[in-house]
Amino acid sequence: MFVGHKRGFGPDRGAGRRLVAACWLAGILALGCRQAVPEAVQDAASAGADFVALREPVLDHVVERQGDGDLYRVRRWASGADPGTAPGEVFCTGSLDVCERALVASLEERHGTGLLNLPVATLGAKQFWADVFWWSDWRIQENVYTGHARLLDPGDVRRAWGTSEACRTAFERQRVQHGVPAPREELVLLLHGLGRSRTALAPLVEGLRAGGRDVVNVSYPSTRRSLAEHAAQVSRLLDAMPEARRVSFVTHSLGGLVARQVLGDGGDWSERHSVGRLVMLAPPSRGSALADGLAEWLPFRIIAGPSGQDVTSAGAANVPLPTCEFAVIAASGPFEDGWNPVVPGDDDAVVSVEETWLQGVDAFLVVESTHTFIMQEPEVGRAVQRFLDTGSFDDASEPSGDEPELSDDAR
Fold this sequence. Notes:
Blueprint: E1 3-5, E2 8-10, H1 13-31, H2 39-47, E3 51-53, E4 61-66, E5 72-76, E6 89-94, H3 96-111, E7 129-135, E8 138-143, E9 149-152, E10 158-162, H4 164-178, E11 186-191, H5 205-210, E12 214-218, H6 227-239, E13 246-252, H7 254-265, H8 268-272, E14 274-281, H9 289-294, H10 298-304, H11 307-310, H12 313-316, E15 325-332, H13 353-356, E16 363-368, H14 378-390
Parallel strand pairs: 11-12, 11-13, 13-14, 14-15, 15-16
Antiparallel strand pairs: 1-2, 3-4, 4-5, 5-6, 7-8, 8-9, 9-10
């Protein structure tokens, strides 16, 4: 090779040496994270000795740790391969930081980082978005109609959008770069009611967190999908939770039926996570007479969507009974016949006290309130926390109602 230099043209041995050095450096960089690991250690790593997964796999990638030491590695599989049968490829070995960064780089190479994004504030989801992933108040949501996904930070600012895989990749970069903490060992899923959003259950969040739990306030498109589809979405969300967790549920109205269906369906998540307790606020446990009367009315069918049929007495009859300890908190009116003359008996303006009752209930409480605002009652918040802690309402509050007088059918 000839290069120009100040004394004319001719071979520049210094430049040749610099070229060799540059090639050597490029080779070192190409080795990536393996270069920092002694050869003997790499041999042990390649043998697979004592490596266990640090957390659940992420898009066909998993970070593994060797025993209790400081050596980690990243394993990946071809897209769609079964990790249970295919050995996969170990492509990085080193410190946790090195392996986490290699994980992100590999994910970005395979899935990209989504479409061009402006970090815009959102409403967090109302009736057109479904949470499919949650981690310490970061969430990935999918649009009901288009199917595209978006990544929201804890302030509901959109940080990425595109495919769900690209959004998960974008989250992994955020997690590694900014040290997003893993969820706590105990989770409480909040499931709102028909036509509502997760902001409806916001009054319960701080009290539950104060008890040492992480709160997953779930967004689901309650008026756009059926009960079975809502349950499948929540199961998918639980499947994506990292490591084993204890999962409890606090629900309002339709959310109680969703939780019961999730528990009844079981699935992969139920083999990995343990189930805690369930508290249902104003649930149409046995269906709603009001919904029965509106079921065939076209405006109701359009507004309430498929779930409007699921809260009828016929729809609720198909929902499995809870498979864990559970409690019901019903609301009643200040009058003997409740708030709504159309609803038989004492009621909260939407469901009767009797309709909230469910066979096998472990604790039952009636408070003076309405269907819409029951979660804002201070005694309800205390009762929810007490039941999750102890399985009882004792000492949670001064109950404003006793077990209702139920018909033989209700019992």
